[in-house]
Amino acid sequence: MAATPSASTGARRVLADVIARPSSRARAFALDAGLVIAGAAVVALLAQVEIPLWPVPITGQTLGVIVVGAALGAWRGAAALTAYMLVGLAGLPVFAGFTGTIAAVGKPSFGFVIGFIFSAFVAGWFAQRAWDRRPALAFVGFAAASVVPFLFGIPYMAFILNVVMGLDYSFTALLEVGLLPFIVGGLIKAGVAAAIIPGAWALVRKADASKKV
């Protein structure tokens, strides 16, 4: 007997899979589409949350990316963040500060938005391997996912600032403005997500146990 995809990849169900799966493909597709839209909406809402810390305020955007990726799984999480990016570029005010415009591609920070897609995928990848069930493992996986946006954001920032705008930012200067101020905030948000997702799984297990009584 051929192995199922989940068996061959080691993937397990994520929180979104706790929802009863429709029997027909059409309804299953509709459910997945609804989850993707809901995930994009969650990120859009959390992008407007700001904690005024020095020297750089912390927004809830990355927290939303991690939570959505972990809750929906790798592919649905990536799809949700792709939808988030596209509706923002289409003009809906979903980016931080209630902004949204095609002109966002010319901003030095837009590379981070691209990186969010892959960050959600990584968070979902760890969740599909049950790293999201325990806070310690969840923190490691979510911290790794938090690194991903910088892999896209820093090079994109360098291109916009140095090539498009004709400025002269060194690699060290780029790290000083695009990475170092966000390390503490990123770890805090990974920790918050590592409390939220395992906590949600604990509620699921409690609900399942009560049904068996």
TrEMBL record:
InterPro entries the record matches: BioY
Keywords carried by this UniProt record: Cell membrane, Membrane, Transmembrane, Transmembrane helix, Transport
GO cellular component terms attached to this protein's record: plasma membrane
Protein name: Biotin transporter
Domain of life: Bacteria
Similarity annotation: Belongs to the BioY family.
Compartments reported by the entry: Cell membrane
GO MF, one annotated term: biotin transmembrane transporter activity
Pfam families: BioY
Signal peptide: none
Membrane topology term: Multi-pass membrane protein
Residues that span the membrane, as ranges: 29-47, 53-75, 82-104, 110-127, 139-159, 179-204
